[in-house]
Amino acid sequence: MARSAAPALDRDRLVGAAFALLEEEGLEGLSMRRLAARLGVQAPALYWHIADKGELLGLMAQDIYAPAYAGVPHAAHWRDWLRGFGHALRATFATHRDGARLCASAPAPRDRDVADHAARIAAPLAALGLDQGRALAFVASVISFALGWASFEANGPMHDYLDEMLDFDESFDIGLKALVSGFADACPGR
């Protein structure tokens, strides 16, 4: 009886298996050797599709950020877009074990034109009247806030400790609103 061939190895399959391994083992347990074993191949086979673990983490981070950008509700003002993005990002980080830690440690994409990538990140806010420089600074600040918050939430002992003091959802919303409201001081013509 003939054995069925394993599905072809490609980037999507590789990243999907990496997420499954991340859920089971956490970021510390995500290694190229373990990933190869999960896929039923030898580790060198992975390097036909990705350069190294850094590129894998970058691809995984892209897959975490993408639904956050797509999940921002329609906004009539840049402040509303940033608040929507902050909430969508926090929710996306929570969908993956160690999602915030992975995004905080993933190297920058190697295969992207920096100017083009910056323009795409800034585009939703530029459409709402911000210049690219401010848009990028504001997005980076919201990402940093959400990363920090999600890290506290994912840290079991710290989460339990903070949970006795505050409501995570309400406190995140208060902090995000304060952060975004403060950006008005950085805008010309205020």
Automatic annotation (TrEMBL):
It holds the Pfam family TetR_N. GO terms for molecular function: DNA-binding transcription factor activity; transcription cis-regulatory region binding. InterPro entries: Homeodomain-like_sf, HTH-type_TetR-like_transc_reg, HTH_TetR, Repressor_TetR_C, Tet_transcr_reg_TetR, Tet_transcr_reg_TetR-rel_C_sf. Residues 8-68 form the HTH tetR-type domain. PROSITE patterns: HTH_TETR_2. One of its GO terms (biological process) is negative regulation of DNA-templated transcription. Keywords: DNA-binding, Repressor, Transcription, Transcription regulation. It comes from the Bacteria. Residues 31-50 bind DNA. TetR is the repressor of the tetracycline resistance element; its N-terminal region forms a helix-turn-helix structure and binds DNA. Binding of tetracycline to TetR reduces the repressor affinity for the tetracycline resistance gene (tetA) promoter operator sites. This is TetR/AcrR family transcriptional regulator C-terminal domain-containing protein. It comes from Sphingobium nicotianae. The lineage of its organism: Bacteria, Pseudomonadati, Pseudomonadota, Alphaproteobacteria, Sphingomonadales.
